[in-house]
Input
Amino acid sequence: MFAFCVEPDLLPQWQWFACYLTSGTHLAFYWSFLVVMLLLVVVAPLALGMGMLGALAVRSRFFPLSWLGKGYVNVVRGVPDIVFFLFVPIALGQGIEYVLHQINCPDWDQPIRQGNDFIVCREARFPGVNASAWARNVYAFGMAAIAFALVFGAFVANTLHGAMQAVPRAQIETAEAYGMTRGQSFRRVVLPQMWVYAIPGLSNIWQILIKATPLLFLLGIQDAVFWARELGGAKTSLYTYPHPDWRVWYFLVLLVFYLFLTWISERAFGRLSDGLSRGQATAAGERQRRAAA
Amino acid sequence: MRTCQESFDAYFLRPLGREFGENLLPRGLEITLCDQIFLIGGGLIWNVYFAVLAILFGFFMAAGVALAKFSDNPWLHRPASGFVFFFRGSPLFIQFFFFYSAFLLLPRVGFDIPLGFVTLTIHTSALTTAQVGGLIVLILNTTAYSAELFYGALRSIPKGDLEAADAYGISGFTRFRRIIWPTMLRLAWPSYTNEAIFLTHSTTLVFLSAFPARQQSGEAFYYARYFVDQTFNPFVAYPLVGLYFVCLTLLIVGIFGLVNKRLNSHLPQAARARFRFRPQYVR
Amino acid sequence: MKKLVLTLAALAFSAGTVLAQDVVRMGTEGAYPPFNFINDNNELEGFEIDLGNAMCERAGLTCEWVINDWDTIIPNLVAGNYDTIMAGMSITEARAEVISFTQNYKYGDPSSFMALAGTDESVIESGVIAAQSNTVQAGLVAESDASLLEYPTPDETIAAVRGGEADAVLADRAFLAPFVEESGGELVFIGDQVTPGDGIGMGVRQSDNELRETFDAIIAEMKQDGSLNELLIQWFGEDTPTF
Output
């Protein structure tokens, strides 16, 4: 990157580091942090949406819907996310290609599964055969986002359902006494009040989601953990910048990054929790009232 | 080809060590479905070991940390907050790596603890094994997450309950035991169930990061990866380990659900009209 | 008649363009110097990268490299994510059941034990040996009486020997050689080399006969005219066995 980086072997200490830290692979390392944050920004609303749908389904009095909700929540919560991440992209990718195959190539007479291989016609390949590397990266990222949203949506559904149940029964009875329908009492009484009970669980899930992003490298995405392992490992003179095992330092950087994300999230959730506790008849609300008095 | 009975005898306890089953794991073409079922199932023993001990130790440690974090005393509040922040803030993957590196640096000595009738020798080298070192990391991790949940629940205790306690003159440890502790558990329980499930699933990461598998003894997911590598077919081993974990999760949900019922039994539940069989015997 | 000729020409032309258009995706690991690794400019470099590019040029194919980690490299080939594997993969019977291999383009790499200087050779039979999980070497150690210690990545196996967790590490000699050389006498090879397998070849799907034959023919060609030997010596040194 700098002009003096042409002959790295001859450079003094800090110049060597300047060149080392701005090498192509390091720039990819810095970029991967943004990829991680982008994934979080994409997955959070998706998971929240799926969770809300799931919680409503579980609460529903329409039997099949309730079973569907419970099935989704229990099965997805039941499988470790790492198994999900390793299995779902392959299965989903093959599923999409299978569907495209049925649509685009109705006259294909050979079986799709030939021995161990999964073969579909050219038009069914997704992303297309000549798709650019960028398109493939977006596709891989999309698969990762779907896998994450599916997994965390189930946990969010469980938390939201618990929060809905935690709203004191007296509130719902009062609403019924006033003649509100079940839907109205839900929208006007339960939904606004459930957030204070949901927030600790949701903040926990958010934190877990942040910490689950290191598993992205299993999905073939070059995320921060991938680069930390790659760059930190001992490098012999085959490389331009040889160095011993520096993984501790790289993981330290990752540690600081994740702690920083956590700190910001905690500040945000703390503010949210305080705002929701104000005026509430809970221990925290009481503390605020006493502090203000 | 091995029969299922032979697979069971050879592999079910193999995850505990070479002495408990067939020395070599099944290879390549000789792998049968029963091999996968029993070896992965046997690996669950370690997952259960990690999960049960981590939840047990973690529960009590988390209660302490949560109370410390909730207290007004800065000497309790600050360290508790810092601990929770650090262990919630970093990925488990990285925690395993750092702790393993730190345990590696410890001098390899044995501590003799005289218990009177027998002397217990604890070797620091045990810390680099997954069974001890990995367990320690899992305990610390779940303590932090659970402490945050309990802390949130402590903040959500209804004000009316505390005022009623004051009105009755209940204070100190009795107040804690009868009002604060049960209410905190009740409010935190659904999220704590979540945390227990997450922890159980995290036990699959123990052998993925830094801790080595000794003599090819690992947990269920380690064996699932082994089979996928040997048979190149992810469509058997991964669904199998998924199925095992679904059963394990349902077990946890069931047990925790029973506790949840007990915690909520004093509250009015949504009444469900029960069908009463009332035949008219006498007109 | 004219129509027939035109149609045939059109078909031949389109077939040719189809072949020319379709990119052949080559899967590799990118973490195994000197076979394949990611250099500091974030580009793939290594013996197999050079070989693969040379082969594609000779075959008139457009090739694109794809990085995939080791554990899922074969399942993803079979699922169609890429078309070949060039990742220092040894030709073994177990693998040949699932995928097809071309002829080998490198003789099997011997595996060696590496340990701290002064380690007694008896650890090979009875000590603690580190190896990367799910490799041929791990299987070899498991078969012996030594106690196997499996790590997820090769770096950790070396760190284990350095830290005293393991008595020795068993891995490909070509991979360990730079560590021995640059350790200044701290790390040494001990014991005998373990006999190599059938060599390193390119993996393709079993149903992809055409692609396999194309590359097979090119490897044979490169063996004949010496260009393969040139690449081998360039990356592995003068001592490497050549064709």
Q: What stands out?
A: Strands of chain A lie at 113-114, 117-118. The longest helix of chain A spans residues 24-59.
